[in-house]
Design brief:
Helix content is 59%, strand content 0%. It is mainly alpha-helical and 187 residues long. 34% of the residues are buried. It has helices spanning 18-28, 35-40, 44-57, 66-79, 83-95, 100-106, 117-132, 137-142, 148-171. The chain is built from nine helices and no strands. The radius of gyration is 17 Å and the shape is globular. The longest helix is centred in the C-terminal third of the chain and has 24 residues, at 148-171. The chain has a single domain (16-182), classed as AhpD-like (Up-down Bundle). It starts with 17 loop residues before the first helix and ends in a 16-residue tail after the last helix. α4 (66-79) packs parallel to α9 (148-171).
Amino acid sequence: MRLSAPRIAPLSDDEMDAETKATLEASFGGRPVYNIFRTLYRAPKAYKRFMLYGGYILSDANDLAPRERELVILRAGFNWKSGYEWAQHVRIGLDCDLTEAEIERIKAGPGADGWSEADAALLQATDELTSDAFITDETWARLGFLTEKQKMDLVMTVGQYTQVSMMLNSFGVQLDDDLELDPDLEK
């Protein structure tokens, strides 16, 4: 984690008015409201629009398969040193058929032994986007197994989680009680 305390504190239950509680209840249906959402709701109009786009990225409308989506989200979060992002998406990645070994290997990147050509290409594209905001022609060609729409969704997914990582890191969003910080992302 970049910060040991929040710069922008998440809303406590006591700080929420009836409208805020109703909005969050509608979004999460009784499930816990994570610190990221409690923090972002300090700007309610931005939160609502953020949830629309983020909802697209995590939905079936995103043509990346869930496993591929989580592979690139985890790599983007790791590249941006976002402990919160990593911790949240480790469990999502496991639910989307990434193995614990693959999740650990994501940290080593596209050159690590054991990746399929497709996985290595997705990781390489993520590295290029998170370092230069551009996928090279060589890597674009390696992504030939994806449709045009999937390539667009790849770039949009990495872009969304770049933004999310920047917010989490800069606002100092702390881990929820049920998450553990990966030792490789302690600072």
